[in-house]
Amino acid sequence: MSAAEARLAELGLTLPGVVAPLAAYVPAVRSGSYVFTAGQLPLVDGKLPLTGKVGAEVTAEEAKELARTAALNGLAAVKSVIGDLDRLKRVVKVTGFVASAPDFTGQPGVVNGASELLGEVLGEAGIHARSAVGVAVLPLDAPVEIELHVEVED
Length: 154
Prior knowledge:
about 25% strand, single chain
């Protein structure tokens, strides 16, 4: 078990299986020293726990927890490419998409769910640059979607 997975266990979490693609793409791609994940939805056992717009059908706190789940799915996608999360050198950038009600402006707080998880699991290596973007709709009516860009050791 990698140190990152041991830390997940301490947090009461386990790394899920890689979420199967919903269309014509792969969950993650390595290019040189970097791994780029596809957008990760907060799927749990193949299903979305909640659907809808944040600030309408989904609360900001619920969405923050979903962003955490999506980041966990992102780590699983990274592991599928590099084999061992201990090879993850640092998270370079996180992009978070939040399906938002027209008057919702709390996207940064929602995406904090992903950022905080990465910091809890990876420590200093989990600190990253980030974008938090409000969008009209996401696949399957998901409230959030998270992309990870990470640097890995050879």
